[in-house]
């Protein structure tokens, strides 16, 4: 008979969902009943892992796919554009909160991404523990570094305040619909902030960033939550043939992030690979890259499991999402980060500081010559490969999912 029901709730792109799916799969194998609530586009992936699915509205994802959404995440003033994008969307937030409430029924414990806005309030109403989880160090203030959601390497004495500022800003985005929902749907005082978290789970590797010494005992760094390569997955014949036909290529992909002109970006990447004298595998992802005509020495694929693909590469070029950054270094490969927004510049600086890749190239400043120079440096510098290899060896001894399950199990006793 399954153990207590643990409900996981997350929203966003694949990088926001896949860690929760890895945790859900691990919890199910450990004997718990598990339900993962997220956008409908991920239902098949969730159920393929044997995890029960519950739908949360995918309206925010649909917003990102619009021209306005693409401009917001790729433009110069991303924060302001994103705030304008969600302004006046109280009904959208209300639908999300209602769906979260339905998905949480019967739960003994919640684990929520911060984008799942109702988690702490649902935990207060149900009287159950709730953990907040994120694959980056943004859930608790620290003096060690600024909030990774801000574009600063160091703010000195203001580091801790920057975290508090960003946490409060996130709370304010949907404050009005939250208050109305608390009062009308949950019967709680409208101004309440929900139950204090039972713990904060940072699902990234301490090999990439050590745990800050000033975090309290309830703030954890578990290691990354990763899914193994599916046992039934086999590479397409054209990928196998391409890899066998020459030296290891360079991977280029921007994951779930769309760009305003995928064909132009694909041409830029192809030119950079040619200038660097490297073969390449371009992953089109959710539409960030496209090639209108075949190019010698380049294979275009929709996607492939990073755990299988990255160890076969000479280097990896990507947007700097937490999961892709982890996958590149876990494979022991030098990484070139081209950050768009959010925490991506933070991870770019970390990779550079660890010596496992060149200086990050902000996406809006990306040119073929700059990318080519970074590729030549990553592939040609033995020190970068050695640094990536050392990080990979440390990551090999971690089991982030098992550590998270240990913490959650203790909360249920």
TrEMBL record:
Alphabetical list of InterPro entries matching this protein: EryCIII-like_C, Glycosyltransferase_28, GlycoTrans_28_N, UDP_glucos_trans
All copies of domain Glycosyltransferase family 28 N-terminal, residue ranges: 6-140
Gene3D superfamilies (alphabetical): Glycogen Phosphorylase B
Ranges for domain Erythromycin biosynthesis protein CIII-like C-terminal: 303-408
CDD domains: GT1_Gtf-like (cd03784)
PANTHER family: STEROL 3-BETA-GLUCOSYLTRANSFERASE, STEROL 3-BETA-GLUCOSYLTRANSFERASE UGT80A2
Protein name: Glycosyltransferase family 1 protein
């Amino acid at each position: 008979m399954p153990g207590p029901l643990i409900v996981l709730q997350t929203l966003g792109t694949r990088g926001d969902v896949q860690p929760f799916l890895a945790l859900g799969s691990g919890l199910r194998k450990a004997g718990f009943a598990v339900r993962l609530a997220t956008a409908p586009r991920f239902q098949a992936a969730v159920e393929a892992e044997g995890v029960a699915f519950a739908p949360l509205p995918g309206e925010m994802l649909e917003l990102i796919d619009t021209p306005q959404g693409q401009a917001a995440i790729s433009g110069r003033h991303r924060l302001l554009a994103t705030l304008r994008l969600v302004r006046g969307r109280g009904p959208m937030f209300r639908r999300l909160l209602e769906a979260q409430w339905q998905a949480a029924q019967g739960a003994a414990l919640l684990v929520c991404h911060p984008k799942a806005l109702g988690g702490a309030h649902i935990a207060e109403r149900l009287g159950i523990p709730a953990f907040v989880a994120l694959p980056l160090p943004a859930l608790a203030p620290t003096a060690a570094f600024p909030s990774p959601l801000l574009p600063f390497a160091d703010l000195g004495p203001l580091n801790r305040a920057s975290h508090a500022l960003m946490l409060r800003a996130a709370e304010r985005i949907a404050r009005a619909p939250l208050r109305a929902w608390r009062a009308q749907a949950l019967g709680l005082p409208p101004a309440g902030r929900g139950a204090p978290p039972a713990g904060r789970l940072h699902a990234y590797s301490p090999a990439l960033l050590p745990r800050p010494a000033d975090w309290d005992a309830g703030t954890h760094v578990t290691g990354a939550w990763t899914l193994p390569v599916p046992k039934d997955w086999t590479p397409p014949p054209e990928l196998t043939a391409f890899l066998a036909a020459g030296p290891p290529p360079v991977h280029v992909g921007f994951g779930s992030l769309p760009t305003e002109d995928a064909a132009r970006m694909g041409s830029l990447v192809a030119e950079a690979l040619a200038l660097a004298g490297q073969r390449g595998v371009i992953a089109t992802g959710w539409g960030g890259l496209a090639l209108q005509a075949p190019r010698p020495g380049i294979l275009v694929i929709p996607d492939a499991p990073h755990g299988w693909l990255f160890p076969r590469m000479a280097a990896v070029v990507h947007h700097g999402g937490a999961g892709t950054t982890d996958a590149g270094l876990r494979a022991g490969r030098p990484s070139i980060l081209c950050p768009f927004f959010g925490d991506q510049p933070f991870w770019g600086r970390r990779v550079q500081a660890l010596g496992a890749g060149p200086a990050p190239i902000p996406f809006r400043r990306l040119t073929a010559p700059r990318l080519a120079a970074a590729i030549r440096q990553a592939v040609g510098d033995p020190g970068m490969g050695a640094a990536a290899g050392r990080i990979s060896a440390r990551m090999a001894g971690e089991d982030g999912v098992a550590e998270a399950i240990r913490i959650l199990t203790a909360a249920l006793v």
